[in-house]
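idk why but the lab printer keeps eating my pages so im just putting this in chat instead. protein + iron/sulfur cluster:
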Amino acid sequence: MTQIQLKKIEQLLSGLDPRIAEILEKSLSNKELSREDAIQLMNVRNLELSALTLTADYIRKTKVGDIVTYVINRNINFTNICIKKCKFCAFSKNKEDPEAYNLTINEILKRAKEAWKMGATELCIQGGINPSVDAYYYEKIIKSIKKELPEIHIHGFSPQEIYDGGTKIGLSIKDTLCLLRDAGLDSIPGTASEILDNEIRKIICPNKVDVNTWIEIIKTAHQLKIPTTCTILYGHIETLEQRVKHLEILRQIQNETSGFTEFVPLTFIPWNTTLFQNIMALNNINFSEATGIEDVRMYAVSRLFLHNFDNIQVSWVKLGEKFAQYALIIGANDFGGTLMEENISKSAGATYGEYISPDRIKKIILDIGRVPVQRSTVYELIQ
Ligand code: SF4
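predcted complex ->
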């Protein structure tokens, strides 16, 4: 089947714009794409677009086969109080805000136990940068959960939380990571990367760690054998060049450490954010959100450009389950998690819900002729 698929793609390539055909042939012969190649692919339309998606799906099949994985997990956003004021974020609140909250350890534990009872193998724990919280509090959260639920995987604390949480108590990045790892932290979400370009960061998240610091935190985690995921927040004010530069940084880190478990493209949900409501409107920036075809190109190009990643995950909360299902046939191979609660995208205006059942995920995957398999956070197959 794979050989027939390859032959059909090769036939298709012969009728394409020769430059695009040459780039796709490079991918099919396992050659690394350049930044320029990826930018060209980010612009394709018509038959070239179809060839791009077929090639991405073929590469996915040769790399990871027909299994589509998913994880039973629960998000716990333990505080929404945050001083960072990222312009793309509608989740964070000032501590005086009536909607501000800070979960107690008991409340966090209650949610963790509920998740465990529902079959969760992972807790994804992240919060705002709350001035009253530091890395010792993160340590306390981890230890309290592990005491009650020693087998649950704790995937938690973004690079920004690691940085601020450690700085407050005078610990280096490495010592903060060691503190949390020794408490039981199993892996880290590679969020807070947004777009790894300092000029963009100055506009959309001026108070966050800069590119070099983000890279240092991630590489240090990998050196300490703490795996991380990685993401991109695209579809706002970044250029295609900046998107591809971001992917190139991730590819380079993966070449050095092999510490990324997956890549998750996150399409920007603009509606309730300052970035959309103030900056873009006030500056007459012609903007809505990434179009569906932009999302398609992002997934397919990621599969080809990130040749050293096995796993590309769809974000059903941002894309909706129907588009997420489609993303599985253009390069992606992981459906992400059940989540059980979700606050970040919902606050920004997403309407796709907070929970998707394992049965629904299985139906979505079976319907495209692939094989649903539950996995652990680090991609061990469970069923
Ligand atoms: S993205 Fe994170 S750090 Fe930035 S404002 Fe929102 S909660 Fe705070």
